[in-house]
Structure formats: C-alpha cells, structure tokens
Design brief:
single chain; alpha/beta; Rossmann fold; Nucleotidyltransferase, domain 5; 7-stranded mixed beta sheet; 16 helices; elongated
C-alpha cells in the first residue's frame, strides 16, 4: 500500500478508498510501527466500504485478537462521517475503558491536519467528552456507548458493535442471556430508521452461543470469518472486482501470528484456539453428545436408492428475528444404516411453512412426514390431513427435551446412523447438537430426537421391513394418488 508523502496528490485516493485511509491513519498515529499489507485487511475494509456506500446493511466479521479490527472500525467511522457529515454513528463496546480508547483514536484522527486536508469543509467538534460524543456542523454525530451504560435518547443511522463481550464473561449463561436481551430489546431499537439503519458487528468468537451466533440470525446478514489458519478454501471479494482466494493452511498474518505461535496456543488451550483464533467455537467435554463418535460421511447413497425415506419437523410458532426456526430433517434407510441427507431450516409464516413442508416431502418422495404436535404443528397436521396429505402424521412428544436427546445419543453415536458432511447445514447441525443444552436454538436437536425415537421404536423397524418387502410405494395406485397429493414426479430423474 502506498505511503502518501504528498497529501495534496493523494487526497482523492484517501477520500475514496477506505483501505488507503486506514493505512495512512495508522502511519500517522503509529509512526514507529509498520502496517503489513495482509490481504485480510483489504477484504475487511472492502466490506466496510460496501456498508458506507449503501450496498449492505448487516455485516459481521470475526477474526482473531490483535489484528487491527477495532482500529479499522474507528477509521471507518471517521471516514464515513467525513464523506457523509450528517451521519449519526453509535459505537458500542463492552466497557468504559475500551470506549475511551476508541474515542481517543477517533479524536486524534478527526482533529489532525491531514484529516482536515482530506475533508476540508467538515467542521467536527467534541460535544461531550464523558459520552465520547462528537458533532459536525451538518448535524452529524459520533457517540460512544457501552453494554453497561444507558442508551435512552441515543439513536443512530449506523450502529457499530465492536467487542460486545469479553472472554471471561463468555462462559456465563446468565451474562450471555443478559447481552442478548440488551441487543434485542435495547440496541436494535436505536436505529433512527429501521429500514435503512446499518449494523456492523466485529468480534472474536468466544462461545458456540455467543452474541455473534445471535446476530448472524438477523435477516440479510453478510458474515465473514477470518480464521488464523483455515482448514478449507476461502474466497473474499476485494477491490476492483477481484477476489482474495485463500488456501487451507494460509496464515492470516504471518508477521503478527506466525505458525509456531498458533501451534503453541492450540496445544495449550484447544478450545480457545478453536473459538478465538479459528472462529469455530467448540463445546467443552460436558456436552451431552460426543460428536467425534458420530459418523460423518462425505457421500451417501442417492436418496432414490434408500428404501425408506422419512421427514421429521419441529415447527416454530412465530417468525421474529430471534424466535425459533422451523426445522425438517430428511432421513433415508439403506442397508442397515439411517442416513441424514438433508436439513431444512428457516423461518416462515404459517401458509408458507405449510407449503414448504409439502414441497420438501415431494422433493425426496418421502414415505412419511412426521410433525411434532406442539405450537403450530397441530394445526399444520390438521390442515394437511384435511387436504388428503395422508403421509403426514402428527407426533406427540413426551418428557423434557434434554431427556429425549440424552436417550437418543447412544443411537446417534452408533454405526446405524450416518450424517452427510460438507453440506450448507452441517455446521448448524454440529453446533446445535454439540452445544445442547447451552445454545440459544435447539430446533435441529428436537427434530433429530423425534427421528431417533421413531427409528428405535417398533414402527420404524416395521416400516423398513414393509419397504424391503415391497409393501409401501410412494405411488401405489394411480387411481388413488390423493394419498400422496398427486405427486408430480415427472420422469424418473425428477425431483
């Protein structure tokens, strides 16, 4: 990245390019240090710039500590308000000391001579040092706030969440729930305009059920994880329509965190390494299920070759951002093994949910659809059965969900069950089962528990026996196709 010796000639670049602005600000605030040209910083700055330009309203970035995440966010705030002097920015972090640090960085940037040269018509003054509040002559503001502080009367067009929690608080279920309530009930209500407000969150991962896991469930979220040492290929958009393609094992910033340091961290504390450095928090050994004993396969038999195919649905009653998901798991039995070959997870209003369940049934030509008789499930079963969806059955569940799942774990860890790996839903599956009962959502767990109860019961074994003997057919009688609601199978390759 160029070092701008002649600010006059570089003014346009610094005005239009956030990455250049970050490099220049760092050089001026840290004259004895050198900022590396690590590609992750370009990818991060590019995404922040997309938010400034109005191309994205929800962005989450996760990266290891000490990678200039916070400094880049402060630079973005100064750059944003320089370009849009009427912008109202609310910067939120976990504590007063951190807030004061961010405010001091912002103060040094916007009160520098070089900043005034880039944005010559901007008048920005400190309005309230206690609140870290700056105001522009165009009615723009930049305010600091903390999770512990009051936000009454504060609002913003842009809300920046930079380290909402600290590592020592991450393992407390009480503190995690308090933070979720603060975000849901207080912070997200602070937008001056809910339809145009921009939310940016950046933090290291600290727990499977941390605030990042909650925020990423918002609609329209773009999330980028920047692990210290990726295990799979990654690709990130950068400037000029290019991409940064990252190979497995390619270090994020070898100068800041060389491999020998990362190996030492991993050896000393694998859970910290997985969460904070790899952006993939794992559950401690107290989890109900040992995922290392669960069979994950890269390939499974084609679903058409599975003689028994069933779906189990746990349905949500409402579709608010932080309510439960509706989850359907699709299982097939083949040569003595139950394969989980698909998980459908989403939030739908009742009419769309009803249609979605039937679409999923038809897609895989399942022989039975089981829906838990709770919440919206009872009404769904009634309506689908009234429409001659005779493969749909309601399923009563009894007892505590933790007990039901615990009962299923031995079966799920046996060779009789295999999970298709490498799918878009696999990470959600691992996180929910591995994190239960300490996670915010357990809808996949409920669906899987229903399946296990069915597979272990006489009805599951009986269905397999009938299918193996040719007893049940998805299209048994062309004259009575209402049983399967006139499945439009088309040709043999359909669905």
């Amino acid at each position: 990245m160029m070092r701008c010796r002649d600010l006059v000639s570089a003014r346009a670049l610094l005005h239009e390019n956030l990455l250049s602005f970050v490099h220049y600000a760092f050089a001026n605030l840290n004259p004895t240090e050198r900022l590396s040209n690590a590609s992750y910083l370009e990818a991060f700055a590019y995404q922040l710039e997309q938010c400034v330009r109005g191309h994205n309203r929800r962005y989450i970035a996760c990266m290891p500590p000490r990678h200039l995440k916070s400094f880049t966010l402060v630079c973005m705030q100064a750059w944003w308000i320089g370009r849009i002097p009427s912008a109202k920015i609310l910067s939120v972090c976990y504590g007063d000391e951190l807030a004061r640090t961010f405010t001091e960085w912002f103060r040094k940037i916007v009160h520098s001579d070089w900043y005034a040269d880039i944005f010559p018509r901007l008048d920005i003054k400190l309005a309230d040092d206690r609140l870290g509040e700056f105001r522009t002559s165009s009615a723009g503001t930049r305010r600091s706030a903390t999770v512990q502080g009051a936000l009454t009367g504060f609002g913003g067009d842009i809300i920046i969440c930079d380290d909402l929690t600290k590592a020592q608080d991450a393992n407390s279920p009480v503190l995690r729930e308090q933070l979720r309530r603060f975000v849901d009930e207080v912070l997200l209500s602070r937008f001056n305009n809910q339809s145009t407000g921009v939310l940016i969150a950046a933090q290291q991962r600290l727990h499977v059920d941390d605030i990042i896991d909650s925020l990423r469930q918002l609609r329209g979220v773009v999330q980028h994880n920047f692990p210290a040492c990726p295990t799979v290929p990654q690709s990130f958009p950068i400037y000029h329509g290019a991409t940064w393609d990252r190979a497995p094992g390619e270090l994020l910033d070898p100068e800041r965190q060389p491999k020998e340091i990362l190996d030492e961290i991993k050896l000393r504390n694998p859970l910290v390494y997985a969460a904070q450095y790899q952006c993939e928090p794992e559950v401690a050994a107290s989890s109900m299920i040992d995922l290392t004993k669960v069979t994950f396969v890269q390939e499974c038999p084609p679903w058409k070759d599975m003689i028994t195919r069933v779906q189990f649905w746990d349905t949500a009653e409402e579709v608010a951002d932080h309510n439960d998901y509706s989850v359907g798991t699709s299982w097939g039995w083949h040569k003595g093994v139950w394969y989980l070959f698909n998980v459908h997870r989403g939030k739908y209003e009742f009419p769309r949910l009803k249609a979605m369940i039937w679409e999923c049934a038809k897609k895989y030509r399942v022989h039975n659809v089981f829906i838990e008789l709770a919440g919206s499930g009872r009404q769904l079963v009634q309506q689908l059965r009234s429409e001659d969806r005779e493969i749909v059955w309601g399923r009563e569940v009894e007892g505590d969900k933790a007990i039901r799942f615990f009962t299923a774990t031995e079966f799920l860890q046996s060779p009789q069950v295999a999970i298709l790996d490498g799918q878009p839903w696999t990470s959600d599956f691992r996180r929910e089962l591995g994190g239960f009962p300490y996670q915010n959502h357990d809808d996949i767990v409920d669906s899987v528990s229903m399946f296990a109860a069915f597979a272990l019961a006489p009805e599951g074994r009986a269905l397999n026996a009938r299918m193996q003997n040719g007893g049940v057919n998805p299209r048994p009688n062309p004259k009575r196709r209402s049983r399967y609601d006139k499945f439009d199978y088309g040709d043999e390759e359909g669905a």
